[in-house]
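DATA SHEET
Item: assembly model
Revision: 1
Owner: S.N.
Input lines:
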Amino acid sequence: MVHINPSNTKDKEIQNLGLSNKDITRGERLLNRNGSFNSRRVGLPLFETFNFYHYLVRISWTKFIFIVAVGYVVLNLFFAVIYYLMGVDTSLTGTITETQFDKFLEAFFFSAQSFTTVGYGRISPVGFWGSMIAAFESLIGLLALALATGLLYGRFSRPAAKVLFSEKALIAPFNDMTAFQFRIANKNRSEIIDAEVRVMMSMLEIKNGTPYRKFYDLLLEYDKINFFSLVWTVNHPIDKQSPLYSLTEEDLHKGQAEFIILLQGFDDTFSQNIHSRSSYRYDEIIWGSKFANIFGFDEDRRTTVSLDRISDVEN
Amino acid sequence: MVHINPSNTKDKEIQNLGLSNKDITRGERLLNRNGSFNSRRVGLPLFETFNFYHYLVRISWTKFIFIVAVGYVVLNLFFAVIYYLMGVDTSLTGTITETQFDKFLEAFFFSAQSFTTVGYGRISPVGFWGSMIAAFESLIGLLALALATGLLYGRFSRPAAKVLFSEKALIAPFNDMTAFQFRIANKNRSEIIDAEVRVMMSMLEIKNGTPYRKFYDLLLEYDKINFFSLVWTVNHPIDKQSPLYSLTEEDLHKGQAEFIILLQGFDDTFSQNIHSRSSYRYDEIIWGSKFANIFGFDEDRRTTVSLDRISDVEN
Amino acid sequence: MVHINPSNTKDKEIQNLGLSNKDITRGERLLNRNGSFNSRRVGLPLFETFNFYHYLVRISWTKFIFIVAVGYVVLNLFFAVIYYLMGVDTSLTGTITETQFDKFLEAFFFSAQSFTTVGYGRISPVGFWGSMIAAFESLIGLLALALATGLLYGRFSRPAAKVLFSEKALIAPFNDMTAFQFRIANKNRSEIIDAEVRVMMSMLEIKNGTPYRKFYDLLLEYDKINFFSLVWTVNHPIDKQSPLYSLTEEDLHKGQAEFIILLQGFDDTFSQNIHSRSSYRYDEIIWGSKFANIFGFDEDRRTTVSLDRISDVEN
Amino acid sequence: MVHINPSNTKDKEIQNLGLSNKDITRGERLLNRNGSFNSRRVGLPLFETFNFYHYLVRISWTKFIFIVAVGYVVLNLFFAVIYYLMGVDTSLTGTITETQFDKFLEAFFFSAQSFTTVGYGRISPVGFWGSMIAAFESLIGLLALALATGLLYGRFSRPAAKVLFSEKALIAPFNDMTAFQFRIANKNRSEIIDAEVRVMMSMLEIKNGTPYRKFYDLLLEYDKINFFSLVWTVNHPIDKQSPLYSLTEEDLHKGQAEFIILLQGFDDTFSQNIHSRSSYRYDEIIWGSKFANIFGFDEDRRTTVSLDRISDVEN
């Protein structure tokens, strides 16, 4: 379990995103709403920083299926060309062909039948080279399809922390004071165990005449809960110790304030650690409103939660 | 390793189940005996909160086998219809058919032979479209079966913390005082390493005239053991600091007391963290009895434990 | 990472093995040399405590291969009987048979060809029932073989903490005092990161006239090292705080002393936590000797360690 | 998550590499630049210390592919010999042969078709022994290929902490003092969460007239960051408490100083702990220079980092 360790000293956080603070002042937001980083690495050849597995696990299902299908066709075309060049009549037996194109097609379909090891056998290899190429095509097919099926299953069984963040954060009255609040929900039916949240605020400040970005940890009412089963309203009470104390909406705008949210926990179903990130910018904060109640009871007196209303606020 | 961190302040626990305490007073028990939550999420379309992997891992073996078999038949019917519509005589060769129904059957069985890549070859595809559909059916079959076999193996190798909870908890004399006790056993032959237990009590209380549910952590004699190999009697001594101090059976009934049990550890065989939960309600507590001894020795002087007698009590 | 947390209070350890201390006095050693527990669970039906996965992962390779081979033959015999009873001539085509036994053999080999999806096609199914059984046999074969291959790979890739314990522990001079020592070696070529050792001593003592087993934690000179790469001599200095202080060889014998060793760490190659256990009994301790030096240098001035001499002592 | 726990006492670290400090003085560097240990185990038979899985996961892709291909050919040659010795004409049907060599080739290709379960069926087994060997060859093929494909996918999906270390470490002015510095970059596009660095210095010292190697932990400005996304300059400020305080370049040379770097964290994409190690020797340190700035902004005002310039220094 990875513990978020909130440090007490505020300045210490400056390196927490692995970014130098030089020049960072001019940049756009650090984290996108979906939790991805707003940065780019340059100077190394693509293959050095690119991880194929990483790519294939992260792309959409449509892209993934497309890549598998195209890869399948391309590899079979490759082997079809080999059988065709060796001579379809000498390397394969049982083909039914009239034209040269028929021959290529039979070579292609024989290739597909070897690659998937379905091997109907109407067309089958003869002679040394035809049989040898077919023997290795089956091996290559098995290996290539193991990658495809492994990735397919890996994607399917990958823990997706479907954490829903409220669209806006609030700065609103809370008990006898004011608090910075946002609401998160666990969309999945599995429990997130030992969920921990950490909130960092980043603001432009002036030091020796030059603006630089400063990072603060915001102390939370609760930064850890045993089960994140349904909904969690995360609260940072704005007391005298809070870096937000006495700041106005305009101050946050001027400082281009950004609130970075880190969530982690252990997924009960997938037996794996999960992480989720998001960020609220100064223009994604509502002042003075409260979150609406979304708890209720059904006819069996079980607790219900309306996840579609997670961003609902009231005055 | 996920550590349960018992907090010192009692009130802090109110959010520990990710539930607001508003209106919670009217609800039924929070946790079912089998550890599942007694709540429901509403307001989002089904596919948003539903995780297919989660579902297929959790359902019974009977349901799982049924879904695999039905899926297999349905996919083959789908491809059989395609071959049938393309014309069995033009897209397939080697079929033995007299009636239209025979044709459909041969198409269905050819489909099954392609899907599983057994490809006997008595029936085999001819022509561009027949061969092409068959080539993709084999690919789809390999991918679909990879999901089925992956899930099968995942279910088979999934660490099931077969933790046995005693049917009732006890409030009974213990040393010179009284204790809240329950007994758990490790049914599996693998050791659970660094087992940790946490017990929370939840009771209705009156605050400003309105009832609300309060949560307390119960301090345990031991909350962690290095090996949970056989049986563990978990003890909460009811001393002056205990929220149970001086409460009677009737008080627990009135307060609709519920004791929530969280167990976690590391399974030696499966090399994975495991979690188990349960709950005892006020009406699942026996007052004044003690657990019966279930340890013994066999003829080889090895320690034995009678797991069937884990709930046995004596006066 | 599972942390072994040594508790300060000695008595607290009494439950650390999940064993009651009642009657434990009469028992044999608690832990066998190979780290398995010397206990047995009774009273539940076998299938309740038996985990098939656990069993198949732990048995020897010979047994595993045997079970896979026998299972393969039995399943094929089962399907062969079905094809035979349906009539080999009506459900299968292409069989070459003279006798009834030939028919059964052809049914058996056809079954094997369907089960593995090799499907040569010399023999192939005809008719509704023959084709249908064959279609499901291929599916069942794929599922069953997925279990076999999954287990095979799981066994192959399972982190085996090949930790070598010295045959005997020593109680020997160490610096200006005496120490309880044993030596462990990492046989694998992968590093064990953050290795932690915990040593518990268990001894019979008399309390109110009845003997009972008491457990002590032994404080170690180092209980954690960053890399357990080669050899580690674990030291418990016997100072005034040590429960071993002033005890003689005879005392340990009378108290049937047993030293329980727990080792854990993170395997760099397998990316998994590993655990190893062992135990030294009073009669497995050498008094007064020191471990021999087993470090040396090869011709390239690289450090070498002679693992075969790990138990070597000198006076 | 494995926590590096920096101990306060300097001498305590002597065992941290699982090495005795006797004679260690004469040795070469402890850790190679790539993080592997400069040591060797002797005295045990090879198969005791050799782990085949470990080997096959760590070798280069070229070697791995070579081993799979050679294993495939060798196993098929083995079965080909069996079919050939049984008599190709009696155990197989459908072979097209003129010479004895043709017979062996047909046996070889039939073997490959059984091993991969492609089973075209032009050649198929007949008779008891031919069919039986073929039935088991398919089973063995499925099991062997499961190892190959499992390893292939395991290698493909293995988290490779592509951490780039700057070629040299610096001892350079930092704020108002001097610091020991090096720079690391995360080449992968996945984030490393909760990255921790630990730096140990090892130097020869004289004690009672004999030189021995002493280990020091170096306190870092930051030893943990929440995200290691891009670049991290690790700083050990050389204050009065630092073991480097007042040491000169010559002192480090004389003491054959070596700086051992341990990095660990949690990979977001692979959901696994990752570890990386490296080491700087006294002759891999530049005195007096500073690292050049490698941060910039692209046309979309996103932060960019030039990873190719990670070792760049300026005066």
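QC remark: The helical segments of chain C are 46-49, 52-58, 61-86, 88-91, 100-115, 128-156, 249-254.
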